[in-house]
Write a structure and sequence with these properties.
The protein has about 600 residues and is an alpha+beta fold. The chain is built from 13 helices and 23 strands. It is about 20% helix and about 25% strand.
Length: about 600
């Protein structure tokens, strides 16, 4: 039955009691049935009442039509969660406080990532209780991948979403390294292409650094809010609710039952079992409140039938969100190899397929690893859109980027049988999408986010590829030595003192020293290859490994390319004798020319 108009749940705890029963989740497209969860008595969250909870809902007016349609569904909403390691259930396998061992396989501070105990599972259980009086049975579909940027879900998004998705929740707050407003808006646009009728919301689970310093000093919270407002998406501000709990003792070291983060708050990112349940309850209350408000909107905007309790048909969803065609372009051709063993490769030398996942977390991390400088990994032949003879493609290459390892080299990317070019012309953008030379050491790559967290992640770089259907196209990835000279200097990003320091020394890391050495997560200065001449040479000799994780191809958005001034089209018309007209179109893209 359609939901009734109301003010939404007054607190995180649903009116209907919990039932000790199994739950069914869809994980990566497969159906799983899990045993009942041992609930945690989160007593310190009882102070989060309606007024406080409503302030954490950053609702977009542009999404009201989608929520109205979802509120009229007789079978309950179909919710898809796209997220990172918190969505994968990292931190949820620890013992439940006050309930002994939560399940037979986990004891103490287990580091296993269990989606069956994640916040998505709690979302399903809590939301089912919120909607029990309506007879609606929500379903939850989860897609999660550890240590990937938010842009990971921008490619081949439809693979991660079920058909006819009603609500999409994006959990990417902790992995916004290298992101900006434009990339987040592009992520929402990709979700809309895959699920044009769905309401979209960001679920913000902050890291401890972001929670304590209001955005981590980099303005990520505000950046996400600005992007959501521009894209017409909702935001669940869990950080606003966690901050008062942190002041009450849920974060500082103390009694174990009040820890919101894993490893008794030693983990700076992943929720503890308490944090998972709390985040699931917050997200469930948000969905229930949004649906109740949508039912009120439907009642207030209708006349006659609705006033008499007769449900009206849902509004037309095709024009639900008022966004321009530039924000949500039509579906483009794309091809993704999100797992390394799916890529068409011709390995040589030391390149081999490895799984370097964390066994303690039950996380797999497949990639092609090289341990010898000079070895080349050939990827291909790459296939473009079949109806076309040629196409301009946007290529996304995923690779391991780390500040925690000291043995990482670099990649040199080239193309055979096709042409490649850098995405950006402005030098200050080179660090965002490096090409053709890519550092895999975060300190050489000048990636402050990964360096400050002392983390190891899968980073991505984008570049253009001009594909011809009549010529086999290969992507060659060479394992190269680290070389600071391959990072172009940006006059906008470097001061005169930086340039003077760089000229006065042959040290590759002089630009880093001039700006200040990066710091590790512990607060100590992270060691640089430039710590000493001998240390730099020793580190250079041991740059013995690089890893390639994924590949994605997509048709370049012509409107975006033209708007950025990357493509110039010139048409020449030559009239010859016998009334023969020859039209020659020259498309010049960053130094190479395509003739039609």
């Amino acid at each position: 039955m359609p939901l009734a108009c109301g003010s939404g749940p007054p607190s995180l705890e649903p009116v209907h009691p919990a039932l000790h029963r199994k739950s069914t989740l869809f994980v990566a497209g497969d159906r799983f049935t899990y045993a009942p969860l041992a609930r945690i008595n989160v007593t310190f969250a009882r102070s989060l009442m309606r007024a406080t909870l409503d302030t954490a809902m950053n609702a977009s007016d542009a999404a009201r039509a989608q929520w109205r349609a979802v509120a009229l569904l007789p079978s309950g909403p179909r919710i898809a969660i796209l997220g990172t390691s918190p969505t994968a259930g990292c931190g949820a396998a620890e013992d439940v406080p006050g309930a002994g061992r939560s399940f037979e396989r986990g004891v103490g501070l287990a580091r296993t990532c269990l989606v069956e105990r994640s916040w998505g599972r709690h979302l399903l259980d809590y939301l089912s209780r919120h909607l029990r009086h309506t007879g609606a049975a929500p379903s939850v579909h989860i897609a999660a991948k550890n240590a990937v940027p938010a842009s990971f879900y921008e490619r081949c998004t439809a693979r991660h979403l079920p058909a006819d998705t009603h609500v999409v929740l994006l959990e990417v707050m902790t992995n916004l390294f290298g992101a900006n407003v434009r990339t987040i808006v592009s992520l929402v646009a990709a979700v809309r292409r895959a699920a044009p009728h769905a309401a979209i919301a960001f679920v913000m689970w902050p890291s401890q650094y972001q929670l304590r310093y209001g955005g981590g000093g980099s303005g990520r919270v505000q950046m996400l809010l600005d992007a959501a407002a521009q894209a017409g998406a909702d935001v669940v501000r869990a950080d606003l609710l966690l901050r008062p709990l942190a002041r009450r003792g849920a974060l500082p070291r103390g009694a174990f039952p009040f820890k919101l983060y894993a490893q008794r708050n030693a983990d700076l990112v992943h929720p503890s079992p308490v944090g998972h349940q709390l985040l699931g309850a917050i997200a469930a209350r948000f969905v229930a409140k949004r649906l109740a408000d949508a039912a009120c909107d439907q009642l207030a905007g209708s006349s006659g039938p609705a006033a008499n309790g007769i449900a009206l048909p849902p509004p037309p969803l095709s024009g639900a969100v008022a966004v321009s065609s530039h924000t949500v372009p039509s579906r483009l051709w794309e091809q993704c190899f999100t797992v390394a063993d799916q890529m068409p490769v011709l390995p040589s030398g030391s390149w081999r397929l490895v799984d370097e996942g964390d066994v303690s977390k039950a996380v797999h991390k497949l990639g092609y690893l090289s341990t010898a400088v000079g070895d080349t990994l050939r990827i291909g032949p790459l296939r473009g859109p079949t109806p076309r003879r040629c196409a301009l493609l946007r290529v996304t290459l995923g690779y391991q980027l780390s500040a925690a390892r000291t043995d990482l080299g670099a990649l040199r990317i080239s193309c055979t049988g096709c042409a490649c070019a850098r995405m950006y012309t402005r030098p200050e953008r080179y660090d965002f999408d490096p090409f053709p030379f890519v550092h895999t050491d975060a300190r050489y790559a000048r990636n402050g986010d990964v360096t400050s967290a002392n983390a190891t992640v899968t980073a991505e770089t984008d570049f253009f590829l001009l594909w011809h259907g009549d010529t086999p196209c290969y992507l060659d990835v060479l394992h190269a030595e680290r070389d600071r000279s391959h990072v172009p200097d940006s006059t906008a990003a470097r001061s005169a003192s930086d340039r003077k320091a760089a000229r006065s020394t042959s040290d590759h890391m002089a630009p880093h020293r001039a700006r200040g050495a990066p710091h590790s997560a512990s607060g100590r200065v992270a060691p640089h290859p430039s710590a000493s001449a001998s240390g730099g040479r020793q580190r250079q000799r041991h740059a013995t490994r690089v890893r390639v994780d994924s590949l994605a191809l997509a048709m370049a958005n012509e409107d975006a390319i033209v708007s950025l001034g990357r493509v110039r089209v010139r048409v020449r018309v030559r009239v010859r004798v016998r009334v023969r007209v020859r039209v020659r179109v020259r498309v010049k893209v960053r130094g190479w020319v395509l003739h039609h």
